[in-house]
Specification:
With about 260 residues, the chain is of the alpha/beta class. It is about 45% helix and about 15% strand. The chain folds into two domains: about 5-195, 2-enoyl-CoA Hydratase, Chain A, domain 1, CATH 3.90.226.10; about 200-245. It has helices at about 30-45, 70-75, 105-115, 140-150, 150-160, 165-170, 185-195, 200-210, 215-235, 235-245; strands at about 5-10, 15-20, 50-55, 95-100, 100-105, 115-120, 125, 165, 175-180.
């Protein structure tokens, strides 16, 4: 597949997507949204790829929707995949966001779509579209509160203020905080670790988390049980028990 506005790389089991419009702080127009949709559906359907990483070129993650292309993006609001191309998709595999510089507006919504967020100390987060009357339509109103809690989510959504990487880390918006320029390296390190584990069980546990959100505990436990039984039927547990008996991974050692 060929792309104009993103760069994709397959590094072993890892799929890296870089939004590549640095002259626009990686703002996403309708063409870029289509490319992102194609890239992430390719990743999800490729059995040789286990973990995705999304980042931005030129020192910024993304400034969100390209307001110079607002008419075409408005026409995408009711699309099942989301205006920015993929933010309403639930992939079967995990994705890590590697964030530097501005991660704002729809760019923040993209980062929230990822399972894990890594930021370097230059990162800045916020819904700057608040000042322009642009609504959050790529998951921000739904995902942010689930990640950092209602009070802090409403603070960012209503004030439109920027917060630093350090504050985002303290709030739990970011899971890993690294030195400038090191976010992509850390994201790849995490992706490589995840890619070493038995994948069917890992993916089923991940989906059980998402499907159990906001369900009563009794329903969530049933969801967990059903995914657990599905994982057991793959046979991964028996291979794992064999490795454990041979001494692998004991005492908390990572594989």
């Amino acid at each position: 597949m060929s792309y104009r506005n993103i760069v994709v790389e397959e590094r072993g089991r890892i799929f890296i997507v870089t939004i590549n419009r640095p002259e626009r702080r990686n703002a996403i127009d309708a063409d870029t949204a289509e490319e992102l949709y194609r890239a992430w559906t390719y990743f999800d359907n490729n059995p040789d790829l286990y973990v995705g990483v999304i980042t931005g070129a030129g020192g910024n993650f993304s400034s969100g929707a390209d307001l110079y292309d607002i008419d075409r993006l408005i026409n995408r609001v009711s699309n099942s995949e989301g205006p920015l191309g993929f933010t309403r998709l639930r992939l079967s595999k995990p994705v890590i966001a590697a964030v530097s510089g501005y991660c704002v507006a729809g760019g923040l919504e993209i980062a929230l779509w990822a399972d894990i967020r890594v930021a370097d100390k230059t990162a800045k987060f916020g819904f700057l579209e608040r000042r322009f009357g642009v609504p959050l339509v790529d998951g921000g109103t739904q995902r942010l509160a689930r990640i950092i809690g209602l009070g802090r989510a409403l603070d960012l959504i209503l004030t439109g203020r920027l917060i630093s990487a350090e504050e985002a880390y303290q709030w739990g918006l970011v899971s890993y905080l690294v030195d400038e320029g090191k976010a992509i390296d850390k994201a790849i390190e995490i992706a490589e670790l995840i890619s070493k584990y038995p994948q069917e069980t890992l993916r089923n546990d991940r989906l059980a988390v998402y499907e159990g959100l906001d369900k009563p505990l009794s329903e969530g436990l049933i969801i967990e049980m059903n995914y657990g039984l599905k994982s057991i039927r793959t046979g991964e547990i028996y291979e794992g028990v064999r490795k454990f008996k041979e001494g692998m991974g004991r005492h908390g050692d990572l594989i």
